[in-house]
């Protein structure tokens, strides 16, 4: 009854059965699953989880004595702290881009540059390279308005475009530093950051190519039309799409709400990487530090998105001379849309957090400790199982790199440890489902149903992860780098 694997199965049954079988609202099903998982988890397992996370003995003991409701609320709140402001600001940016005509201007420029047939590939590659310095969810928030506007322009391929931005952002998030998971992995396994960036980008391009072809197949097999939503009514987008070029904001002005947060985040990421390497790009004087302070302030993802939202609202005001009442109604619609997404995503985070407290990661590590097989597929397998069990790709990366770091140092690998790190990254893509907050973000922003996401997004990441494993094993054989 207290085995983490048994608790995991109960949680999976409750959440999946509640949403798909009983047609419960996802928020209710996730909270119900989290409550049951927390109830079945013994106090000593919670204490061990705390110790594994680096808490002191006293703090871990205090965590185990907390009530179920308090632990659940803490995980719910932690998820809100990570994504709450991001979702609200992204909702405002997205709705402003659509209403002001900025999204339409960007789409027309993309079509002129790449052509109609290459639009999905352009979205795929753009989301991959944006996903290197920017968090996965931020890329989805910023690009989804463009997907909706592009779909209405093309009149087709909504699912293909959604899957393309998902594919690119997801692979970059697990393969290329300075994304947080790969950044921890390279420090734990002593892999040079430059090598991981180059190797991760190469493997990533192979994986997103396979993802692109799978997305084209899925789009033909299960075509999904774009749907109305509170923050992006199709009729409003069609009206904007019918405008002449002269009625739309300029391309530079249209890109500002996206470029400003991206620029701040990228600049802060680059400076942080240099600082960790012991490099002061502008020197160590007070003047230099004073110059860098604003970059650090605005480079925070929350502040960056707030800045983008302010600019987006200014662009909207400059294009649509609305009164105060209409403007307030506009913001209210964006906030209502964001509120629902936050609730479901935070509930998914709470469910995943309760699963982690069962000790499921350590249980799986124990089961695989004596598993005799080649290290690359072993790393992939452990990472995939841990990701599926607790929902977070970053947690899977951190956990498995800790498990295998000693093996990478001492074993006679016959290849560079970077291949082991890449295998962990690709394994962490399998299998996204209801315990993953990213699953809910893509579901709710795209208006896909849970069933649609499970048969499209989930196998998409599985295909890309397995492609990565094959590429890594071939690379380790042909180019061992030792």
UniProtKB/TrEMBL annotation:
GO cellular component, one term: plasma membrane
InterPro entries, A to Z: Glcn_transporter (IPR003474)
Top-rank taxon: Bacteria
Bilayer topology term: Multi-pass membrane protein
Key word Cell inner membrane present: no
Record's signal peptide: none
Subcellular location field: Cell membrane
GO MF annotation, one: gluconate transmembrane transporter activity
TM annotation in the entry: 5-22, 28-46, 118-146, 158-179, 191-214, 253-275, 295-317, 329-352, 364-386, 393-415, 457-479
Keywords: Cell membrane, Membrane, Transmembrane, Transmembrane helix, Transport
Pfam families: GntP_permease
Protein family according to the UniProt entry: Belongs to the GntP permease family.
PANTHER family cross-referenced by the UniProt entry: GNT FAMILY GLUCONATE TRANSPORTER, HIGH-AFFINITY GLUCONATE TRANSPORTER
Protein known as: GntP family permease
Organism whose genome encodes this protein: Arundinibacter roseus
Lineage, highest ranks first: Bacteria, Pseudomonadati, Bacteroidota, Cytophagia, Cytophagales
